[in-house]
């Protein structure tokens, strides 16, 4: 069975010029172009997901009105449900994975398709995101994080603005220690409870979501072991925590603080209005057992400690799915035994996010033929800008991984590609693995769905500030 996809080292022709090289690779393996077209269609689909949701609602409302006028019972429309399914961003890449797999089967055979899906694609990150997101969203972990953030927010008077600034600065930096998906989950849950429940205006909603995505993307650069874009290069390039912190981390902190302060000043009038609204209610749904009481039971300290140990086990073994999945199974048993104190009752959101990432890596594994030569053809500043742009259409960990395939890459170019990859991680939902988790947790606060162009606009200023911090400081 011939290797699939075609290894980069097996392309015989290396003509001068990027365009000529890409054309030669398409001629050598026409499936390259087909896989990339399907991938681009999937990316385009994400931009139109909200349109499908709107069409679904209009169709269902029309069917409901027709049923009411005719005296028939109102039932869900199959067509409306299908449109709604097409509008779920989390399933887009899986939907477009169907024609991709069919194309592999027709062109290379079922054995090649099965081998690629089972052995050629690494699902460790999607699996890890499901587990860490489920752990981080439990009541003991969120209440622990909230109590820590409350102490800092209390310095600013505990106002919505104080909570907002604290969550968006401290929360993303946790990604360097508890991983970016964990930081995204906790930050999104706290923003939902302490900010979005106050129903801010749409402009501030999107600015906050864009700022959160950018800050989480660059906030994992304090260490070499937590953020996927850094993990991909740490071992091949010999980077450790000290080198990452000195080259990237302190600049990321400057960018996070600067972006958050600028948005705080821009929306100062809106924050004053939010401060006059009713206190945020506790929207955390209690478990079925805890629902028997008037309020959730206080969490014993030892329960929180055990939950933290499960989080630590998962983070430490993030690259060993057999270990963190087994740990999660033990956690499920403990969670059931302490159900009165926890809230792990719905796996839908973590599973959908994992489904999204799994579909993305299936497509992303077939894009190396054009991304790797594109990166290697650029000098330092164009490489930074190119990595930032490409990250908007690929998970940034894929960009840095492909950079490790470029032989004899100069040290300055290594820094440029990693800086660009983390800088562009907030521009779209697919730019960074934790972004789908943030969108899934906060999407209910937006009309029908998060609009990609508005998200891009909200992330544009923090992205520019991050770029300036990395390239000018």
Give the percentage of residues in beta strands: under 5%
* Whole-number total of structural domains: 2
Q: Could you state the order of secondary-structure elements as H and E?
A: HHHHHHHHHHHHHHHHHHHHHHH
Anisotropy-based shape: globular
Q: Between the first and last Cα atoms, what is the distance in angstroms?
A: 51 Å
Helix proportion range: 55-70%
Per DSSP, the total helix count is 23
Mean pLDDT metric:
85
Major sheet summary line: none
Count of β-strands? 0
Uncertain residue ranges: 282-294
Structural class given helices, strands, pairing?
Answer: mainly alpha
Radius of gyration: 23 Å
Describe this entry's structure for a reader.
The protein is an all-alpha fold. It has two domains: 30-120, no CATH class; 125-472, no CATH class. It contains 23 helices and no strands. The protein has helices at 18-28, 31-47, 49-70, 78-86, 92-108, 110-120, 124-136, 139-155, 160-173, 180-194, 202-219, 228-237, 241-266, 268-274, 301-316, 321-337, 348-364, 368-376, 380-391, 396-404, 411-423, 435-442, 452-472. Helix 5 (92-108) packs across helix 6 and helix 8 packs across helix 9 (160-173).
Which terms would index this structure?
single chain; 473 residues; mainly alpha; 2 domains; 70% helix
Brief synopsis:
With 473 residues, this protein is an all-alpha fold. It has helices at residues 18-28, 31-47, 49-70, 78-86, 92-108, 110-120, 124-136, 139-155, 160-173, 180-194, 202-219, 228-237, 241-266, 268-274, 301-316, 321-337, 348-364, 368-376, 380-391, 396-404, 411-423, 435-442, 452-472. Helix 5 packs across helix 6 and helix 17 packs antiparallel against helix 22.
């Amino acid at each position: 069975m011939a290797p699939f996809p075609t290894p980069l080292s097996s392309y015989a022709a290396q003509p001068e010029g990027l365009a000529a090289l890409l054309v030669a690779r398409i001629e050598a393996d026409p499936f390259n172009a087909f896989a990339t077209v399907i991938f681009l269609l999937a990316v385009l689909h994400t931009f139109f997901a909200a349109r499908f949701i709107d069409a679904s609602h209009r169709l269902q409302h029309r069917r409901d009105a027709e049923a009411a006028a005719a005296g028939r019972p109102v039932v869900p429309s199959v067509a409306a449900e299908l449109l709604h399914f097409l509008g779920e961003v989390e399933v887009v890449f899986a939907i477009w994975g169907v024609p991709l797999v069919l194309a592999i089967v027709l062109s290379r055979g079922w054995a090649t398709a099965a081998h690629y899906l089972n052995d050629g694609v690494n699902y460790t990150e999607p699996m890890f995101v499901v587990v860490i997101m489920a752990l981080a969203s439990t009541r003991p972990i969120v209440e622990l994080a909230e109590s820590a953030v409350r102490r800092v927010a209390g310095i600013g008077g505990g106002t919505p603005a104080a909570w907002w600034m604290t969550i968006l600065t401290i929360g993303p930096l946790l990604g360097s220690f508890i991983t970016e998906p964990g930081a995204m989950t906790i930050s999104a849950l706290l923003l939902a409870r302490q900010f979005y429940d106050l129903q801010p205006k749409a402009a501030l909603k999107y600015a906050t979501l864009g700022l959160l995505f950018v800050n989480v993307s660059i906030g994992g650069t304090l260490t070499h072991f937590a953020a996927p874009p850094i993990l991909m290069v740490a071992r091949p390039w010999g980077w450790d925590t000290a080198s990452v912190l000195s080259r990237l981390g302190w600049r990321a902190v400057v960018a996070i603080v600067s972006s958050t302060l600028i948005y705080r000043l821009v929306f100062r009038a809106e924050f004053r209005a939010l401060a006059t609204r009713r206190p945020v209610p506790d929207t955390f749904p209690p478990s079925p057992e805890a629902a028997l009481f008037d309020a959730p039971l206080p969490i014993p300290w030892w329960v929180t400690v055990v939950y933290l140990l499960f989080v630590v086990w998962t983070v430490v073994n993030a690259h060993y799915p057999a270990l963190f999945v087994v740990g999660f199974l033990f956690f499920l048993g403990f969670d059931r035994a302490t159900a009165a104190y926890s809230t792990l009752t719905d796996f839908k959101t973590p599973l959908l996010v994992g489904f999204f990432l799994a579909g993305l890596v299936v497509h992303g594994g077939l894009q190396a033929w054009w991304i790797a030569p594109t990166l290697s053809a650029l000098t330092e500043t164009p490489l930074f800008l190119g990595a930032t742009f490409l990250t908007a259409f690929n998970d940034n960990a894929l960009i840095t991984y492909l950079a490790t395939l470029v032989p004899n890459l100069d040290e300055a170019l290594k820094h440029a590609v990693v800086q660009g990859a983390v800088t562009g991680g907030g521009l779209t939902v697919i730019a960074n693995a934790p972004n789908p988790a943030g969108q899934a947790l906060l999407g209910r606060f937006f009309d029908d769905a998060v609009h990609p162009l508005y998200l891009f606009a909200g992330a544009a200023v923090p992205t520019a500030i991050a770029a300036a911090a990395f390239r000018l400081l």
